[in-house]
Amino acid sequence: xxxxxxxxxxxxxxxxxxxxxxxxxxxxxxxxxxxxxxxxxxxxxxxxxxxxxxxxxxxxxxxxxxxxxxxxxxxxxxxxxxxxxxxxxxxxxxxxxxxxxxxxxxxxxxxxxxxxxxxxxxxxxxxxxxxxxxxxxxxxxxxxxxxxxxxxxxxxxxxxxxxxxxxxxxxxxxxxxxxxxxxxxxxxxxxxxxxxxxxxxxxxxxxxxxxxxxxxxxxxxxxxxxxxxxxxxxxxxxxxxxxxxxxxxxxxxxxxxxxxxxxxxxxxxxxxxxxxxxxxxxxxxxxxxxxxxxxxxxxxxxxxxxxxxxxxxxxxxxxxxxxxxxxxxxxxxxxxxxxxxxxxxxxxxxxxxxxxxxxxxxxxxxxxxxxxxxxxxxxxxxxxxxxxxxxxxxxxxxxxxxxxxxxxxxxxxxxxxxxxxxxxxxxxxxxxxxxxxxxxxxxxxxxxxxxxxxxxxxxxx
Length: 461
What we know:
Elements: H1 5-17, H2 25-30, H3 33-45, H4 50-60, H5 65-82, H6 95-107, E1 117-120, H7 138-141, E2 145-148, E3 157-162, E4 172-177, E5 187-192, E6 200-205, H8 208-224, E7 229-231, H9 239-252, E8 260-262, E9 266-269, E10 278-285, E11 291-296, E12 302-303, H10 305-310, E13 322-324, E14 332-338, E15 341-345, H11 349-352, H12 354-364, E16 368-372, H13 383-392, E17 397-401, H14 404-412, E18 423-429, E19 439-444, E20 454-459
Parallel strand pairs: 3-14, 4-7, 6-13, 7-8, 15-16, 16-17
Antiparallel strand pairs: 1-2, 4-20, 5-6, 8-10, 9-10, 10-11, 12-13, 14-15, 17-18, 18-19
Helix pairs in contact: 1-5, 3-5, 4-5, 8-9
C-alpha cells in the first residue's frame, strides 16, 4: 500500500517532539543541506513514493536519531515551500501534490489516518506574515506546516474549512464593526433558575424588528463602503435576524462585498428544540449568504455585583451575581482557512480564556480572531485590548465588536465622561518590521449611531 506523506509527517513529527528541547538546531540545520539536496527532487515529484527513501535514511543512518528525524522534517518543509504551499498550487505540480491539495480542500486536514491536525502554512502576505517563530527555534525551520496533535488540545474538537480564493484587495482588509443596540434598556436581561439552584441569566433584544432593520441598514452601508469583513456584537441578534442578514447578503450578489459577515451571536435552541437549553451562537456568512462557520460560546460569563451597577442592569437581575445560561457541549471550534489567512471566531469570555486561545493561535497558526462581545467601553486599558495584545504577540490580529448599549451605560459612570465617548470596537494588530509592538486601536461612537459601522482599513501586506 502506498504510504500517505502527511500521515508519515505526523508520525515523525510526534516522535521528534517527544524529546527535542535540548537539540542543537542551528548545527543540525547546517548539516542538513546534503539530505535536503538528496531527497527534495523526489519529494516534489512523487511525495508519497519518497516516504520509503526517507524511512530508510532515518533507519540506517549512523547519525543521531533525533537529528535524522529533524533532517527529514526539514526536507519535507522545504518541499512544501517549493510547491507553493497547498492552497496556491498550479498545474505544474505533480499528481501527488494535487492529491494532497484535494484532501486539504475537502477535509480541512492533510491527514487520513493519523489523529490530530496537520495544516499547511501558506505565506499569504499579512503585514506580520504570520509571526515568524523565534530565530533558530525548531518552528523557525519547520515553517511550512503546523502540526496540532489532539493531546495539545484535550477535550477540544477542531474543524478546519478551506475557502476558495476571495478576490480580496492585495494590500488591505476593510473591516466594518457594527455597534447595534443603542441602550441597555433595549435589551431584556432575563433571570433564570429553571436548570440550576443558583441564578443564571440570558440576554435578548426587546424589539427584534427594530434591531433587524438596524442590522440590515448597517450591512447595506458596509457593502456600499466596500467592506471586506463585517462584525456584529454578541447577543444583539436573534436567529431570525441572523437569517435575515443571510438573505440580505444573498440579494447583494456574490460579486459584491462584504466577503464575510460575522453575524454577532444569538441564542439558538440546542438541537432545534425548546427544552434542552440553548447555545450563544455566532455564524459567519459568505458572499452567497451561506453559513460557512458556526461557533457557540464555550465559556459562560459570570456577572459580578459591581458590573450589575456599572451596566445599570442590577434591578433586572435581582442584584445577584449570576452566570450566563448557555450550553457548551460539544466543546469544539471551527477554523476558516482563507486567502486572507486563518480565521477563528470567539465570543466574549472565550477570548479571555488564555489556556484555550493561546494553544490555538500557536498550534493552528491563526492569523485573525474575530470576537463579538457584549461589554462596556472599549479602551486600551480594558480586558479586550489586554488579551488582544497577548495573542497579537503570538501572531494573531484581534478584532472585537461590542454593542453601544452597555458601553454607553459604563461611559455615564466614568469619572470624567466628557473626556471621551463610549468605545465600541477594539482592533489589535501584531508586530511587524515597522512596528515592534502590537498596535491597539479603539473606536468611539457619538450619539446613538448604533446602525453605523466603524470602518477601518487593516494591512494585508
